[in-house]
Structures are given as C-alpha cells and as structure tokens.
Amino acid sequence: MNTINIAGLPGLRVTVAKTFWQRLRGLLGKRRLAYDSALLLIPCNNIHTAFMCFAIDVVFIDLTGTVVAIYPRLRPFGMAVEPAAYGCLELCAGAAARYGLEVGQRLAAPEMARSKDVSRQPGKDQFIPVGK
Q1: Predicted TM-score of the model (pTM)
Q2: Per-residue DSSP letters for 4-64?
Q3: CATH of the domain at 98
Q4: Is 130 part of any domain?
Q5: Does 132 map to a domain?
Q6: pLDDT digit string (tens) for 83-96?
Q7: Three-class SS of residue 117?
Q8: Structural domain harbouring 110
Q9: Burial class (CB in 10 A: 0-12, 13-18, 19+), 44
C-alpha cells in the first residue's frame, strides 16, 4: 500500500488499499487510527467495522471525487453502504467534521485517477469515468 495526499485535506496522510487482500484487511488489527491518517479503499461502496476496537468516520466518494455520503463515528460492528460510491475514505472519529467535509464537496484523490476505471480531466481538479 502506498501513501498519497488528497487536495482539500491538508496534512492528512492517506494509505491506499486497492487489492482484494488490502481492502479485506483494512483497519482490522489496528488499535487506533491517528488523527492525521486515513485509509482509502478503492473500489469500495460498502464497509463494516466488525472486530474493530474503535469508531471511525466513513466518507464515500464517487468516480468524480465528490463526497456522496458521510457516516460519522461509525462504531465497532457497524456497517455503511453507499451504492453510488466508487471509493471509501476511513478517518479517525471526528475527522470528517474537523476537515469540514460535506456531501457534495469535491475532493481530488490522485489514486482514483490512476485507476483503470477513471482518467483525469485535463485542467480540472476532478476525475471522470473513462468514455463519458
């Protein structure tokens, strides 16, 4: 897994989980998530917090990098689903509010642009599906 920065979220270190095994493992086994760390799961439109020891903020992002849903402080053994999402950003509890994230806000996640399903739109801070 590699670490990226997301425009609009200064100081946040984002680890990217793209493979099946990376997404399956996710945050399991972690005792906590640092306030300045996050995990971006792609592709992903649903998550669970079974067997986790702490609450997290869950931010679902579509192919354009737009926030489509936020589940603040999702507790252990919880579940979050967003059919319109392409990726899921998992942050420490309270971080979504601290960063001022809102549904409809556009984020630029470079890792999503490198995905085989999307390409960067020239001159814009957004991502679009290939062929659209």
Answers
A1: 0.79
A2: E--BTSTT-EEEEE-SHHHHHHTTTT-S---TTEEEEESS-SEEE-TT-SS-EEEEEE-TT
A3: 2.60.120.1140
A4: no
A5: no
A6: 999 999 999 999 99
A7: coil
A8: 3-125
A9: buried
Give CA–CA dist 102/73, Å, rounded.
Answer: 15
CA angle 69/73/77 to nearest 5° reads: 100
Report the residue count for the chain: 132
Q: Is 94 helix (H, G, I), strand (E, B) or coil?
A: coil
- Which amino acid type is present at position 13? R
Nearest to 75 by CA among 97, 51, 45, 43: 51
Asked whether residue 32 carries a pLDDT value surpassing 70, the answer given is: yes
Measured CA distances, 60 to 31, 32, 81, 123 (Å): 23, 20, 9, 24
Residue for token pair 């001159």 = 123
Question: One-letter amino acid identity for 121?
Answer: Q
Calculate the dihedral angle through the C-alpha atoms of 77, 81, 85, 90, rounding to the nearest 10 degrees. -20
> Has residue 111 been placed in a domain?
yes
The domain total for the chain is 1
Among 94-103, 104-113, 118-127, name the most confident range. 94-103
